[in-house]
Design brief:
By secondary structure, this protein is an all-beta fold. The chain has no helices and eleven strands. Strands 2, 4, 5, 6, 9, 10 and 11 form a seven-stranded mixed beta sheet that branches. Strands 1-3-8-7 form a four-stranded antiparallel beta sheet, with no helix packed on it. It is elongated, with a radius of gyration of 14 Å. The model has no long low-confidence stretch (mean pLDDT 96).
């Protein structure tokens, strides 16, 4: 599975950005998707997760501001981010988990996209 994120960039505080993550390759085994972010020197943290039942779970900092969505036919997951603050500055990456042949087959990560929030 290959994952390619796009949509990162600069935003002013209070602004919005939408990230996209396109999956290709052996996508039939994907059963869960997630967005993570990481600030240099800090631990990577989950932002939003779409589980195998398409239920979406958000980190506390993302609730009410970020919305994850899935376009299954397009194999694309989105992260709509509103009310951005400088604390949201990070590299955002998408991850998928795969399961087929009756077993967990592993996780795949995109290369990440930089989001910078500054005035």
């Amino acid at each position: 599975v290959q994952l390619v994120e796009s949509g990162g960039g600069f935003a002013e505080p209070g602004g919005s950005l939408t990230l996209s993550c396109l999956a290709s390759g052996s996508t039939f085994g994907i059963y869960a998707r997630a967005w993570y972010r990481q600030v240099p020197g800090k631990q990577r943290e989950m932002v939003a997760e779409i589980d195998a039942g398409d239920q979406i779970h958000y980190a506390d900092f993302a609730k009410g501001r970020f919305t994850a969505s899935l376009d299954r036919p397009e194999n694309t997951v989105y992260l709509h981010m509103n009310a951005l603050t400088p604390e949201d500055t990070a590299i955002y990456s998408c991850k998928v988990d795969t399961y087929y042949a009756g077993a967990y087959q592993g996780e795949y990560w995109g290369q990440g996209t930089q989001v910078t929030v500054a005035s």
